[in-house]
Amino acid sequence: MTAFRLDDPTPADPRRRWGDLDRAARGACYDNNAGVPDSAAQVAARNAASAAYRAAHGQHLDIPYAASARGTGESDRTAFDLYPAVQAGAPCLVFVHGGYWQRNARADFACFAEGLNAAGWSVAMPGYTLAPESSLAGIVAEIGAALDWLAERGPAHGISGPLVLSGWSAGAQLAAMQLGHPAVAAGLAISGVYDLAPIRDTYLDDKLGLTDAEVETLSPLRRPVVDKPLTIAYGSRELPALVHDARNLHALRAAAHVPGALLPVPGADHFSILNEFRRPDGLLVRAAQDLLGGTR
């Protein structure tokens, strides 16, 4: 297990006293919007920057990866936005957005392709059906289908290099679940939720309706370890439950002697951490590059 210093400033995991918390207090443990005072302003700035980046890089947007998608925009979520590098064989970061599996869209995160594009990488952003229209098991399967499509058809869109599968928040759980996909070389999980059991006791389950089987089979902390490199990042100002999930997943993997770093991002909260994708020298850009042996 990973050892942490006795003066670790992170509060104790509130789930250790879960039985003492009412439903509202349990929900607060996962409420990132309330936990970051300027979250609304950060989200508005992110969405504006993403709209501008998407408008300036519109050649490979809204490309369906599933037969049900018609490619007509955000009403069809099972589609890709692709931001290919100049060199088709460049590495590609596949970024899965978050929103507790029930909100947000790939278009809202386009600006986070900027740093890797500037560093010579491609970026691919898949969307997925949101709960309650889809179950979480169905969403996980959609990400697998997206990776199948990218492996087969990515070269036709200028993407044929190794894939690093990444995700943020709920997207980190989806990325961790598909780390074993044969097209994936490595993973970068950011600010994720890796044990679903406590989620069932919060407002988040109103739309998810998690089953016992989904908790057991879709929680990365309850799954067999995948022997591929996985960097697990979190902000030092994240909610404690998310910090401890990141640490617990890294400890589980370290005990199995599989590769991957634990990456605390100093001063970052749940939203600002993604700004480390905005610059070619950003911490998350460098983390992705290091997963492929420092490919830059």
Automatic annotation (TrEMBL):
<feature type="domain" description="BD-FAE-like">
    <location>
        <begin position="87"/>
        <end position="178"/>
    </location>
</feature>
<dbReference type="Pfam" id="PF20434">
    <property type="entry name" value="BD-FAE"/>
</dbReference>
<dbReference type="InterPro" id="IPR050300">
    <property type="entry name" value="GDXG_lipolytic_enzyme"/>
</dbReference>
<dbReference type="InterPro" id="IPR029058">
    <property type="entry name" value="AB_hydrolase_fold"/>
</dbReference>
<keyword id="KW-0378">Hydrolase</keyword>
<dbReference type="InterPro" id="IPR049492">
    <property type="entry name" value="BD-FAE-like_dom"/>
</dbReference>
<protein>
    <submittedName>
        <fullName>Acetyl esterase/lipase</fullName>
    </submittedName>
</protein>
